[in-house]
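We modelled the chain as a single entity of 288 amino acids. Its sequence is:
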Amino acid sequence: MNQETKADVLPLLIPKDMVGVGSPIPLETVPDPAALTERFAKDLMSEYLAAKASGRDKIVFIVPVGPVGQFEQWADRCNAEKISLRDLVVINMDEYLKPDGSGFISIDDPLSFRRHMDQKFYNRLDPELAPPLEARHFPNPLHPEQTGELIATHGGVDACFGGVGITGHVAFNDPPEPGKPMDLDEFADLPTRCVELSRETRLINSVTVCRGNLSRIPRKAITVGMREILNSRHVRIYMNRQWQCAVVRQLLHGPVTPDVPASLLQRHKDVRVVAVDLVREVPEPTLA
């Protein structure tokens, strides 16, 4: 085993009780997915209120759709406590595209992230508390540069929230394809753009959201880039899938490489990971 291969394999052998120990990224575990959803919702609120207290005129969040459940809880709390989100600018990480990449999939498609945000967040909020329409942003596949321009207009991203995919992707920033190596700094500077989703990402998404119907998962998407994620003031990651046992170790313990995009978060000054306890299990085979 050469040194490079050894460095890649060793994190995967870390015992459950040692996951996160010695990592530059703090890890917190919660007992189950319900607890993770509750924690995510609380973090959305606390990050918003902290940014407001700092004197920011507009608070900018980058948010995912998955994990799911946190937006309903946050909306319900805002309604109950009469907390206005009129100063919030919401930038969604990504959205699926039509086969030719010319635009979003239909908002009527159950896979539409825009549909999810409308149903689970914006339409659930009392209208007088909800972010205005112009502050609800999905990256534009015809003008992806607009996302960076919006962020610059408001002085940067206060907090980026997200999960981690099977390839280690954050948003839809999959690793470079085999045979197409990319320098670490070059990968870290990738901006918002249209992408072709990897086979692995499409496959795991098909298992997660449509019972293994791979043909149902679009091949193209628009995504915020590693640039926007890594330049956020705070990054908060949430992990609730058993298949994340391997990638959580790569995220927390390295090596830092474009082959595991989430590992680049080790270079960020303010990242926290919250994971369900089962995510710490050792990713070794077990045959029933």
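As a brief sanity check on the tokenised model: The first strand starts at residue 27 and ends at 30. The two ends are 30 Å apart (CA to CA).
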